[in-house]
Amino acid sequence: MRDRRIRGVVRRPWYDSPWRIAGRVVSSTLTVVVLGLVVALVVVPRLTGGASLTVLTGSMEPTFRPGDLVVVRGVSEDEVCAQVPVGTVVTFQAEPGDPALITHRVVGKTIGTFDDGTSCRLVTQGDNNSATDDPVSPAQVRGVFMYGLPKAGWVRQWVTEHVQVVGLLAAAAVAVYLLWPGSRRSTTRVLSVPPSGVPATGLPAAPAAPVPDDRERGLRERELDLREREIALRERELVLRAGEPEPSTSVTSEA
């Protein structure tokens, strides 16, 4: 396994530690799940002109249960009679203008001309109900079922009621990710500095010398100490020689 040596510090790759591997897997999974929920519950309904709704009663069991979340796409009043066949699950208002919504299955359709100018009435019924609902006008229909997520409605309701707690948990998760050892890759680069008088080139830097161990460092320090002592002895010897008197010489002349 290769080690990363940065300024004398050995840093091992994140995949050397099983805890870091597990942390990466968990964080990646949570990220994918959160992004998937955001797309499914927010992005898709907005793009289709629909909404995501929480099931509150058991009238559609076993298809939907209380706490499930259903996503419906928007449908215009003019499209209901022609594009909503029998067997489709639709979301509609109990009464025109009533904000309360019901999600039931279309079990029949009446074609004709009605006082409100529409050409049909939908006959709806819950899968767990024994009686049909009152006839539904196209003006009451708000959406057609696309897909559902079991128990996701309770999760969304809890998040809505505990926004501060969710914010604190998200901030703690971000802090743990930023402070976790090895969570961020080091951006430090080791560059070789050319000696004085030598121009820098575009060649790649030479690999850094390995960090000596304690034994090798001790041997080097001892060698330097011996060299310093030898130099000191030589200097002392030169000083002593410089202080000695020069030998006298006699000159004789011949007659």
Care to describe what's here?
The protein has five helices and eight strands, in the order E-E-H-E-E-H-E-E-E-E-H-H-H. The relative contact order is 0.11. The N and C termini lie far apart (about 95 Å). The chain is rod-shaped. A hairpin with a 7-residue loop joins strand 5 and strand 6. The N terminus and C terminus are likely disordered. It has a six-stranded antiparallel sheet with strand order 3-4-8-5-6-7, with helices on one face. It is α+β, with helices and mostly antiparallel strands and about 260 residues long. Among the domains are: about 60 residues, no CATH class; about 100 residues, Umud Fragment, subunit A, CATH 2.10.109.10.
In short:
The chain has 255 residues and is an alpha+beta fold. The chain has helices at residues 18-48, 77-83, 152-161, 163-179, 214-243, and strands spanning 4-6, 9-11, 51-54, 69-73, 89-93, 101-111, 120-125, 141-149.
